[in-house]
Design brief:
Layout: H1 5-21, E1 25-28, E2 39-43, H2 50-58, E3 65-69, H3 70-73, H4 78-84, E4 87-90, H5 97-108, E5 112-115, H6 133-141, E6 145-150, E7 160-164, H7 179-195
Parallel strand pairs: 1-7, 2-5, 2-6, 3-4, 3-5
Antiparallel strand pairs: 6-7
Length: 200
Amino acid sequence: MMHGPIFTFLYWVVRFGLFLYHPIFKVVGRKGVPKTGRVLFCCNHSGLADPVWLVMALYKDHMPRIMAKKEAMAIPVLGWFLRTIGVFGIDRDGVDISGIKTGIKCLRDEQQLLIFPEGTRVKAGERRPGKRGAVVLAQRTDTPIVPIYLTQKRRPFSKLTCVFGEPYKVEFSSRRPTEAELEAATQDLMDRIYALEAGA
């Protein structure tokens, strides 16, 4: 990932622009976030800039790899910038073996990874079932999950809050979880994420 002068310049430009839109940005529970070692950050998804807000919440020197929709990687300039800072694309509509393998490699290399289990942006007041990819990655790499909640309902200049939950590990009865176990673990993850709204 790039952490040179270009990245630093763009980081502060983007940060300035975002804080003009949401001048009050509150972060809750960051002290419990592991600073080293493999971690899977899982957050609800309501806005296009959510990945950037998460980076802001973690600080510039604590940036995770980010799994994003593959369409974003094809956008000129933006795609180059995303790849440079460590973002990689995944096909949301099918089984993307390459994207899954990249995620597994990131975690086994003791990197931290951010994904949005819902797979798409969700409007305020709505809930969508999560996709199983998050719990599969966590189970295959023995990685703790940190659930995160970002304010869903947003208006220009309104307060935006990011709440970090306690790390936890998914547990199954065997190394090959059943379909029912995967569904239950995914629902538990989404419940943990939205339960954090109370702290926002």
